[in-house]
UniProtKB/TrEMBL annotation:
Protein name, UniProt field: Helix-turn-helix transcriptional regulator
InterPro entries per UniProt: Cro/C1-type_HTH, Cupin_2, Lambda_DNA-bd_dom_sf, RmlC-like_jellyroll, RmlC_Cupin_sf, TransReg_Diox_bact_type
Pfam families to which the protein is assigned, alphabetical: Cupin_2, HTH_3
Record-linked SMART domains: HTH_XRE
Keywords: DNA-binding
């Protein structure tokens, strides 16, 4: 029996062996801080071949996989032993998110990244944003993706494009973040809110 969730996303399917191997090779390459060209050259295969392997589009020969594993400095047995489906997961304890420098930091906006995933077609950046006493209004943020704000504490007038929204605890604002946006007026301090940004992952 398949149980549905509250999401409208289509059900996930099982990965093929080729897709599992390809995803693992891509992850190992990124951990080794190698570009696709670096690994392809070291393994003696074309970049196009490596791209097809990483995307699970072909079933590579054992000799090709051995060459890739030698370039990654891992045994072939490890690749197959861990080829079972794996999914990213990020757990951050209270107060332990990574402090991030962003454009608004100089204006007194403090960003703490609450999680990070390495794989998948989308990048999701969840931030806890705190506006310090010396924070300055800043309404010129612009970037790719969709952003959602969830107010935790305080009150702020938040601008998106030509509209301004007064937000308090429990309020949510979701918008296309290519339009200029940001807090225009601080109504009640201290102020903190969640900012969740989603955008497509760039292929390497």
């Amino acid at each position: 029996m398949v149980l549905a969730t509250g999401s409208l996303a289509s059900p996930a399917r099982e990965l093929t062996l080729e897709e599992s191997l390809g995803a693992q090779i891509r992850q190992l390459r990124r951990r080794a801080e190698l570009t696709g060209s670096d690994l392809a050259t070291a393994a003696g295969i074309s970049l196009g071949m490596l791209s097809k392997i990483e995307n699970g589009q072909i079933s590579p020969s054992l000799s090709t996989l051995q060459a890739v594993c030698r370039a990654l400095n891992i045994p072939l047995s490890q690749l197959f032993a861990t080829a079972e489906e794996q999914r990213d997961c990020s757990f951050v304890r209270a107060g332990q998110g990574v402090a991030i420098e962003r454009r608004g930091t100089k204006a007194g906006h403090h960003y703490r990244l609450l999680g990070h995933l390495l794989n998948g077609p989308l990048v999701l950046e969840p931030y806890l944003i705190t506006l310090h006493d010396d924070a300055q209004p800043y309404v010129s943020f612009r970037h790719h993706g969709i952003e959602m704000l969830y107010m935790l504490k305080g009150r702020v007038a938040y601008r998106h494009g030509e509209e301004v929204y007064e937000m308090g605890p429990g309020d949510t604002l979701m918008f296309d973040s290519q339009a200029p946006h940001g807090p225009e007026k601080f109504i009640e301090k201290p102020i903190s809110y969640l900012s969740i940004i989603v955008y497509p992952r760039q292929s390497e």
